[in-house]
Write a structure and sequence with these properties.
single chain; globular; about 30% strand
Length: about 230
Amino acid sequence: MLFNFVKSTEIAELKREIIKTADGSYTLFVPALNEHYHSVHGAVAESLHVYIQAGLRFAEKHFQEIKLLEIGLGTGLNLFLTLQHTQKKVFYTALEPYPLEVNLIQHLYTDVAENELAIKVNIAECNKWHRLTPMFSYIKKTERVEVAELPVEEYHLIYFDAFAPRVQPEIWTEQVFYKLYQSMHPHAVLVTYCCKGDVRRALKSAGFCVEKLSGPPGKREMLRAVKK
């Protein structure tokens, strides 16, 4: 299939189509990769289940403020849901080497306020902190996680929301997970929608305590990994 021959550097140039998912929210589909940005069973439902309930709620119990790293900002959905669903102070760092065009972003959110916020985040200057509220700041970086320089014991929570391993196998590795492990506080948590056996083993080899959790609609399981 075509996705086996697409270089990571070419992903940004591929055509994307807007798709309505089962819960009424929208996502993007990349035909050349046969890959969706979110679950077709519900984009918002998936993000709420995997990243908010299994990740953010877990971190809130252990830390007074949340320094958060997202691998794969994509449409910005996880950022917006985090903003809406926490009272904690959040410093949100997003690595997104393939930023989307504004014309795609503005058709993904039907609510006017969400639409304006999505565009604001999308066009914001990279590598610079921006404040959305007194309690929520974010920074976007176009670096790839495997080459980015990450601080040591900085993050309390990681959203690992990259393209699936069949599309980007180079970032679902023990080396990348160990790099993330070192960047996290003790008791910090990483969550991801993917529950493949080799991903689970790579996380364990990197030092994480890994557990399977029930998955979002349409998916049996997901993973949560905690730094020992």
